[in-house]
Design a protein that fits this description.
The chain is mainly alpha-helical. It has one domain. Helix content is about 70%, strand content about 0%. It is built from ten helices and no strands. The chain has helices at about 1-20, 25-35, 40-65, 70-90, 95-120, 130-150, 155-165, 170-190, 200-220, 225-245. Helix 2 (about 25-35) runs antiparallel to helix 3, helix 5 (about 95-120) packs antiparallel against helix 10 and helix 6 (about 130-150) packs across helix 8. The longest helix has 25 residues, at about 40-65. The protein is globular, with a radius of gyration of 17 Å.
């Protein structure tokens, strides 16, 4: 199973490199349903994975001049506070409830990705930045809470918000989003410190394999039709989200005792 887990880490990285986002939403399901980790531990483990891989992507965009630091700072600080609060709030939720929330978000991400795939790739911002930055703050709160509670980056929310509400062009929006995700994950993980025991050797190897996948995916991105990839990945997310919903359909009726999340959970 461990070999399969590392293979899926490469797939996650590959999808991130090919699509510029979305793949990290699969990290928690891989940890839970393939490697057998407890859901709460899996969510905490996913945060360094998503954070480090996003930081690698942000560094590449920074070198290309595609990061709006002032927006990342404003959006990121608000989202970081919400991510920490979300991680603390997650202590009062069962792992099954968290997985149900993740499944709903996966379906929402799939819809967003499918719609985005049908739009022209030259989409430009509709509003000026100065007039709309305040509209980003509620989105930052939602993204941060989502990161802390279910362990995903929320790029499918951040990028459209930056383009449509922040007046940021698409390429800088992607780079800025990756930096915000890295900030969120660091803050969200801080909220889990002392509550879970992370198997760091495994997480470090998983991150390394995913990073290799990102490099390969980035090199292939120009050769593979993005629209087809996004639509196919959206369908896959719907299937996975539905599977998780079915698996945890009794989450709100089962015993609500909060299980311990210490140890490997396997």
């Amino acid at each position: 199973m461990m070999v399969l887990g590392y293979a899926l880490a490469a797939v996650i990285g590959l999808s991130l490199g090919l699509l510029g986002g979305g793949g990290s939403i699969l990290t928690v399901p891989v940890f839970v349903y393939v490697l057998g980790y407890d859901p709460k531990l899996a969510i905490a483990m996913s945060l360094p994975v998503v954070g480090v891989t996003s930081l690698l992507g942000a560094a590449a965009h920074w070198r290309a001049g595609n990061v709006r630091l002032e927006i990342a700072t404003l959006f990121g600080v608000v989202a970081m506070a919400a991510a920490y609060a979300g991680a603390r709030l997650a202590h009062f939720l069962t792992g099954a409830v968290q997985l149900m929330m993740l499944a709903v978000i996966m379906v929402a991400a799939a819809i967003s990705m499918f719609v985005n795939a049908r739009r022209p790739t030259t989409t430009e911002p509709r509003q000026g930045r100065a007039a709309s930055l305040r509209l980003l703050l509620p989105v930052a709160v939602v993204v941060g809470l989502t990161t802390g509670i279910v362990g995903i980056g929320g790029g499918f929310l951040i990028v459209p918000a930056l383009v449509l509400l922040g007046g940021v062009a698409m390429k800088p929006a992607v780079g800025t989003s990756l930096l915000v995700i890295a900030m969120n994950c660091a803050s969200g993980f801080a909220g889990y410190v002392g509550r879970v025991d992370i198997p760091w050797s495994f997480v470090a190897t998983f991150i390394a394999v995913a990073a290799i996948g990102i490099l390969v995916g980035t090199s292939l991105a120009r050769r593979v039709p993005q629209r087809t990839l996004k639509q196919a990945f959206a369908v896959f997310l719907v299937v996975m989200g539905t599977f998780i919903l079915v698996q945890n359909r009794h989450a709100f009726t089962a015993d609500r005792t909060i299980p311990s999340s210490r140890g490997a959970g396997r």
